[in-house]
Amino acid sequence: MDYSIETSALDKQQTDCIIVGIYENQQLSPSADSIDKLNQGVISQLIERGDIKGKNSETLLINHLPNSSIERILLIGLGEKEKLTAKLYRKALSSAVTALKSLKIKSACCTLVDIEIKDKNATWKTRQIIEVFNDAIYLFQNTKSIKDPAIDLAKISISISDELAPEAETGLSQGIAIAKGMDLTKLLADLPGNYCTPTYLAEQATVIASNSNNMSVEILEESDMEALGMGSFLSVSRGSRQPAKLIVLNYQGGAKDSKPVVLVGKGLTFDAGGISLKPGAGMDEMKYDMCGGASVLGTLQAAADMNLPINIVGIVPSSENMPDGDANKPGDVVTSMAGLTIEILNTDAEGRLILCDALTYAKKFNPEVVIDLATLTGACLVALGRVPSGLLGNDDDLCNDLIDASETACDSLWRLPLWEEYHEQLKSNFADLANIGGRDAGTITAACFLSRFTEDYRWAHLDIAGTAWRSGGANKGATGRPVPLLSQYLIDRANA
Ligand code: BES
Ligand code: MN
Ligand code: ZN
Question: Has 278 been annotated as catalytic?
Fold first, then answer.
């Protein structure tokens, strides 16, 4: 998709369709109003006739304007002006792109940066247009020999006044970088487990690094991890024929001595549960257990594309979790890189086993903060559903910064407590800690487990089990979350 900024007059633009807004009291957006006046009140007449009320996400196409150079106008309902939130704005954008897709329109010009939303500038609106449009035109075809019909929409211009053009340009470059990062994350996530193995993820990380002047990559093999004492991580991969990889991407956009933000993403390319085998129904979706890792790769690519003037390290422990004669058994005790011993009471709680060693490894980078992201617990879906990602951490400032970024990015988070009382649930008679904490508060006890390995730095954990992909049915597919949130957090840090 080609995205651009256009400052020329609306009736001078080369496009198949101009997108304009209308509120529920039938008030027109500034661009809708000027087009209406240039075209003998064509929009007003349709409103008068009752063809569009302006309810949010309502659409109406005017596909013939006999006395105009404009080919088509797509009217988008915005709802009540006073109630137009960021979320409703995105919803209206999404209805616009759905309409364009079904109408098989090839190019469109979006004027909706002219819509007022509280506290949102042209940068934010431009970015949202690109993120929402790009998300909607993603189509996974890699493993299909009979391809779905291609999407016709290939060019989006965003129309803007001269004085707002600089703001919109920032939004354009951020939006394109983030949208591309999400595309990469979604593609890696949607690829099945027999394609997207730890080795494949490592190869893709190498490609990402080679596309940037400021990024280097290091892939640690099982022998390297052995030497580092990563007994917990390696115990998970022992049950798999695929060799584990520890992927380390190092983006140096900032001063040499400035401490990096370290992102750690769970890269379980298939989670069968191990000897504590998962039930069969829906098990295919455990190919998505690498979404944390894929989001780290997508975010680093976006940060590099935006040339952010900060240092960022991405760490992706990647493995499969399979049943095998050599796999972990319930009751096994393993020794982590940090030296803590772990009793594995359920081999399906493997994410924390690979993350704990990666989190210990993160210390080597002298991090400013560490943020891990993982499809860690089914319990997070029970607690929060598929709307926000779960947030837990040992530092209020970091958690609040992440919540601020999540609100700006419309990629929501909800914080859960990490109180010491919960640590009781991880007690073991045979090791320093157990890898499960019973039925209650599963998301919290999983984070409590991780917190034992993150005491030396400011740390936050995102449980993305409910947000990284859409489950089941026709809509099944990766979302690219939380790339928008993490990108926003990094943009905010770069601006601070
Ligand atoms: N990858 C799963 C978590 C998961 C399950 C994410 C379903 C999204 C949907 C994780 O490795 C896991 O299996 N967790 C167990 C932990 C339990 C054994 C304490 C779970 O959530 O059931
Ligand atoms: Mn599991
Ligand atoms: Zn898992």
Answer: yes
pLDDT band at 44 (very low <50, low <70, confident <90, very high): very high
Structure tokens at 282: 């829906």
320 C-alpha vs ligand 1 centroid, how far in Å?
Answer: 14
Residue 387, number of CB atoms within 10 A of its CB: 9
Mutate to test the pocket of ligand 1, among 377, 386, 440, 467 (most ligand atoms within 8 A of CB): 377
- Whether 1 has a pLDDT exceeding 90, the answer reads yes
CA-435 nearest atom, ligand 1: 19
* Domains and their CATH numbers in the chain: 2-158 (3.40.220.10), 179-495 (3.40.630.10)
What's this model's pTM, rounded to 2 decimal places? 0.98
Distance separating alpha carbons of residues 283 and 277, to the nearest angstrom: 10
Reported confidence tier of residue 426, pLDDT bands at 50, 70, 90:
very high
Residues 139, 64: Cα–Cα separation, whole Å = 30
Per-residue tokens: 151: 């999407």
Mean predicted lDDT score pLDDT of the chain? 98
Burial class (CB in 10 A: 0-12, 13-18, 19+), 256: exposed
Specify the ligand 1 atom closest to the Cα of 273: 13
Strand 261-265 with 369-374, pairing: parallel
- Residue 459 has phi, psi (to 5 degrees) of -145, 145
- Would the CB of 372 count as within 6 Å of ligand 1? no
Give yes or no: 481 in active site. no
Ligand 3 centroid to residue 321 C-alpha, Å: 8
Q: Is the CB of 114 under 6 A from ligand 1?
A: no
pLDDT of 177: 99
Distance 110 CA to ligand 3 centre (A): 41
- For the record, the structure tokens of 248 come out as 């380390």
| E-assigned strand segments in 323-418 | 333-335, 341-343, 369-374, 389-393, 413-415
> What are 122's two structure tokens?
């042209």
User: What does DSSP say about strands 413-415 and 261-265: parallel, antiparallel, or unpaired?
Assistant: unpaired
* pLDDT score of 67: 85
Whole-angstrom Cα distance, residue 65 to residue 126?
A: 27
**pLDDT one-digit tens code per residue, 241-258:** 999 999 999 999 999 999
